[in-house]
Automatic annotation (TrEMBL):
Gene Ontology, cellular component aspect: cytosol
Pfam families: HHH_5, KH_NusA_1st, KH_NusA_2nd
Family annotation (Gene3D superfamilies): 3.30.300.20, 5' to 3' exonuclease, C-terminal subdomain, Nucleic acid-binding proteins
Native organism: marine sediment metagenome
Signal peptide location: none
UniProt KW keywords: Cytoplasm, RNA-binding, Transcription, Transcription antitermination, Transcription regulation, Transcription termination
Domain K Homology: 89-162, 163-274
GO biological process, one term: transcription antitermination
A single GO molecular function term of this UniProt record: RNA binding
Annotated protein name in UniProt: K Homology domain-containing protein
InterPro entries associated with the record: DNA_repair_Rad51/TF_NusA_a-hlx, KH_dom, KH_dom-like_a/b, KH_NusA_2nd, KH_sf_prok-type, NA-bd_OB-fold, TF_NusA, TF_NusA_bacterial
């Protein structure tokens, strides 16, 4: 029950007290009068000195899910499950559903007779258009469904990088992208994938450009003629490493390649790679990379060179990095996904690999006790008295990360600035640190 409106925020009586519906949690330019009844979602409850503070929302994806649960008995009973929701509040939304009963169509059940069920939700959401998508555990199939009403010609998925290429006919491109990128943005939120949409002609041009680039790579580095280099590319070879270290049998399937030719190809590729590694390492050292980082397992000379260009030159620098600074990632800013480039992203280092390397560096420096990293699997099976131990561990880990980030910022300050701040930041290995 609405009590009053203050500076665009709505104060709501929820029975046991008051709650607040902030301006940015309302749909569009909604306005309410005292004693209006509204449906809202309890987004957060915070315990503060003046008492619990209840925050409401009408833009949260969970709000739409709860509305469907109220309108669709099959969802309430658990026969149909809502797997994901993506919203552009007040404009458009996509909701993915699956039925646990093969005799029930999840999309039809959510739409209802003559659209009565979905229309009730649309009316509550101020006319927000809703696409009801059948969920599928096969990600490419799910993505094709999520991009409806656009038709998709082909999908290429890179599961490790969480990226996907979608090829559509020329006439379907604008429909697939949507107005101001809305359709592809909602599909990306729904699937959790970074989606790159292109036309069939654009894909053909890209593949041709890749073919020519790889052909030139083999011609220049292995001293091959164009025809032989094209044979290598046609057989799936894309870089020198694959030629240098692949099983010989995989080279012998190429027309005109015998054991002697295969051996010569691999010898040339290895010689070029060794020369490239030496040049990259020399350049990294010239840029100031210290031996502590050079000797760290898992970093190639090319990686060291890339890190040096990103001003990561010591093991301490490396240990203070965040995983996304190495592997890259995505950040949501004002509802838009923004790409963060990683220093090691060109080398296809995953976030998990980056986390493992960073933690190894911290252990080597004595910042983290290795015994704390052991036995995590066993701890999952041990019951604790309440949540106190878990909370303490979470706070400790959070505190460690904060300290590392502060150290990273501190080391970038000039000596003059540090002196002006009037305190000294001690490392854990320093006396009294």
């Amino acid at each position: 029950l609405v009590k009053r409106e203050e500076y665009g925020n709505v104060i709501v009586d929820v029975g046991a007290g008051e709650a607040i519906l902030r301006r940015n949690e309302k749909i569009g330019r909604e306005s309410y009068r005292p004693n209006d009844r509204i449906r809202v979602y309890i987004k957060d409850v915070r315990r503060e000195q003046r008492g619990p503070q209840i925050f409401l929302s009408r833009t949260a994806p969970e709000f739409m899910a709860e509305l469907f649960k109220m309108e669709v008995p099959e969802i309430y009973d658990g026969i149909i499950e809502i797997k994901a929701v993506a919203r552009d509040p007040g404009s458009r939304a996509k909701i993915a559903v699956i039925s646990h009963d093969g005799s029930i169509d999840p999309v039809g059940a959510c739409v209802g007779m003559r659209g009565s069920r979905v229309q009730a939700v649309v009316n509550e959401l101020q006319g927000e258009k809703i696409d009801i998508i059948p969920w599928n555990e096969d990600q490419p199939t799910f993505l094709v469904n999520a991009l409806q009403p656009a038709e998709v010609s082909k999908v290429v998925l890179d599961e490790e990088a969480g990226k996907i290429e979608v090829v559509v006919p020329e006439e379907q491109l604008s429909l697939a992208i949507g107005r101001r990128g809305q359709n592809v943005r909602l599909a990306s939120q729904l699937t959790g994938l970074d989606i790159d949409i292109m036309t069939e002609e654009q894909e053909s041009q890209r593949r041709q450009a890749e073919f020519e680039l790889r052909t030139k790579l083999f011609m220049d580095n292995l001293d091959l003629d164009e025809f032989f280099a094209q044979l290598l590319v046609s057989e799936g070879f894309s870089n020198l490493e694959e030629v240098a270290y692949v099983e010989v049998d995989e080279l012998l399937v190429i027309d005109g390649v015998d054991e002697d030719t295969a051996g010569e190809l691999q010898a040339r590729a290895r010689d070029v790679l060794e020369a490239q590694n030496k040049a990259a390492l020399d350049n990294a050292r010239a840029l100031g990379v210290e031996d502590s980082l050079v000797e760290f397992d898992g970093l190639t000379p090319q990686m060291l060179e890339a890190l040096a260009k990103d001003d990561v030159k010591t093991l301490e620098d490396f240990a203070t990095c965040a995983d996304w600074e190495l592997a890259g990632g995505w950040t949501t800013v004002n509802g838009e996904r923004v790409k963060d480039d990683g220093a090691l992203e060109p080398f296809e280092v995953s976030l998990e690999d980056a986390q493992a390397m960073i933690m190894t560096a911290r252990v080597m420096l004595g910042w983290v006790d290795p015994t704390e990293l052991e036995g995590d699997a066993d701890e999952d099976d041990v019951e604790t008295d309440g949540e106190t131990a878990e909370e303490a561990e979470a706070y400790r880990k959070c505190g460690t990360m904060i300290i590392l980030e502060i150290r990273k910022l501190w080391e970038r300050l000039s000596p003059e600035t540090r002196s002006e701040l009037g305190f000294v930041f001690l490392r854990p290995t320093d006396p009294g640190g």
